[in-house]
Write the structure tokens for this entry.
Amino acid sequence: MSVKTIKPGFPTARSLGFSLIEVLIALIIMSVGMLGIAGLYVHSMQAGRTSLFRHHAVTLAGDVADRIRANPRAGVAYEDAGPGAGTEEFGCVGGGGDCSPEEMAAHDMALWDQQAQATLPNGDVLVNYNNAVPSMYTVTVTWQEAGYAEDPSYSISFPVFEMLP
């Protein structure tokens, strides 16, 4: 049996360590992988932002629905109020006086418009009223978000049983 001895400084048929080409290829593969991870991170940040906006839209639509149910006599006043209506101060709201259903609807729409603008980029709340039996309201919350061809929206429809006067 023969024993091979390796003398320092002399290359053999079997090299020890990595060549420069192997190191460069490994760096390229790692760079591509890191770029993929960075792309996933950016995508997850966008998805998180979209999720937050959708959460605000659902919460706002639920608040609108609850206030409409609390003021069942207003009827079409919610649709007529529209965004930006009722921005003036109502003495009946904070002062303890009696508000008409139409005044409450205008005040509610003003509050919703402020909340939509505060929580959603260019947020808007639209209420449609259908005077069927039972009365149906459709609340649509829209906002602008980067990366969408058209503005995302959230819509909820619910019946409200009106109280007789």
